[in-house]
Amino acid sequence: MSAVIESIETLLVDLPTIRPHKLSMATMACQTLVIVRMRHSDGIEGLGEGTTIGGLSYGPESPESIKLNIDTYLAPLLIGEASDAVNRLRARLDGQARGNAIAKSALETALLDAQGKRLGVSLSTLLGGSRHAHLPVLWTLASGDTHKDIDEAEQRLDDRRHGDFKLKIGANTVDADVRHVAAIKAALGDRAGVRVDVNQAWDEASAVRGIAALQDAGVELIEQPIPARDHDGLVRLAERFRVPVLADEAVADARDGMTLAIAGFSGAVALKIAKSAGPRGALALAEVARAAGLGLYGGTMLEGTIGTAASLHAWSTLGELRWGTEMFGPLLLKDDIVTTPLRYHEFGVDLPSGPGLGITLDEDKLAHYARPA
Ligand code: MUC
Ligand code: MG
């Protein structure tokens, strides 16, 4: 008889960041991870993580809503069901609950982690096998101060930790942002790639002005310059400029990828397990994007180690990630809740090995940082 899902526990875990992380819509001093512990009748525990950015400022799910919706609506759809029926259970969640992609991603991750542990194989093996054991990882400069950002970049280059940088802009005027980015690019020169993420902050006219100047300054990629829903605008910007445009908030799942591709988008796509309701959905988007000739990028919702490991397992199965990854979430946090942190070196990170995610919780740290119930 196959094992069944016995219980699903969700924990809100508040971890301070190493410095304020300034995005166009929020400045983070702390990241809240929603950790899922899914226990099965064969004694196996599957781990998952559902994490967003800045409470409700990034999208319609907050850490608190993720926890509440799992506890109240989603977990009851899974309890007592066969542990190994991952595809059927994911369809059940989609059939009976709309939206809630981040909550579903956390549950799918926990199902896959448990199934990998049960079979003694890694999550990437469950997904068809990894093609990379080491993935490139950039770093985001977002201290809000140009000189601090340059120092931070120099340090990361010296340590051979990160070789490319993404700058968070959009909170200031276009001119101030362009000056900030151009100063950083001028300081780093050809030693590092510099990209920007505007997180939807510009209208199209500002984007035309901003991108023209950033292109001249040597920026290599422009992420989500205008609001997520403006697909036509994104297509126009991608057509207009030589520097590629990266769709992030505009593209959550395979269907969004198809819509953008049909509209004529010619840029690149940020994959995130949180946007696509789990690793499987993110890989489905990757297939659509690849078929449409769009470049791929392994994106983060600034998850801790569990969500980052789940994403790495998924990205490791892809042939080419034209724009690498930004799976640095754990490095932005002052502490971790796992026994063996991910290994970052040589401008990237190693794919964790071992069954499932290959990650073990540190119970003391978890108890220390978990929000009291
Ligand atoms: C985003 O929109 O890309 C990724 C890196 C970072 O600093 O913020 C995230 C969110
Ligand atoms: Mg982004």
Write a structural description.
The chain is α/β, with parallel strands linked by helices and 373 residues long. The protein has two domains: 5-120 and 363-369, Enolase-like, N-terminal domain (Enolase-like, domain 1); 126-350, TIM Barrel (Alpha-Beta Barrel), CATH 3.20.20. It contains 13 helices and 13 strands. The protein has helices at 63-78, 86-96, 101-119, 123-126, 146-158, 174-188, 204-217, 231-240, 254-262, 279-291, 305-316, 329-332, 363-369; strands spanning 5-22, 27-40, 45-51, 134-136, 139-141, 164-168, 193-197, 222-223, 245-247, 268-271, 295-298, 344-345, 348-350. β2 and β3 (45-51) form a beta hairpin. α2 packs antiparallel against α3 (101-119). The protein starts with a strand and ends with a helix. The structure holds [(2S)-5-oxo-2,5-dihydrofuran-2-yl]acetic acid and magnesium ion (MG). Magnesium ion is lined by residues 197, 199, 223-224, 248, 270.
- State the helicity in percent bands: 25-40%
Largest sheet: 7 strands, parallel
Distance between the termini: 35 Å
Return the structural class.
alpha/beta
CATH architecture group name of the largest domain: Alpha-Beta Barrel
CATH fold-level topology of the largest domain: TIM Barrel
Q: Shape from CA axes?
A: globular
> Largest sheet, order of strands side by side?
5-6-7-8-9-10-11
Which ligands appear in the coordinates? [(2S)-5-oxo-2,5-dihydrofuran-2-yl]acetic acid, magnesium ion
Mean pLDDT: 98
Assign the CATH class of the largest domain. Alpha Beta
Helix and strand succession? EEEHHHHEEHEHEHEHEHEHEHHEEH
What portion of residues belong to β-strands?
15-25%
Number of helices: 13
**Count of the domains:** 2
CATH superfamily of the largest domain: Enolase-like C-terminal domain
Gyration radius over CA: 20 Å
Low-confidence stretches: none
Count the E strands. Answer: 13
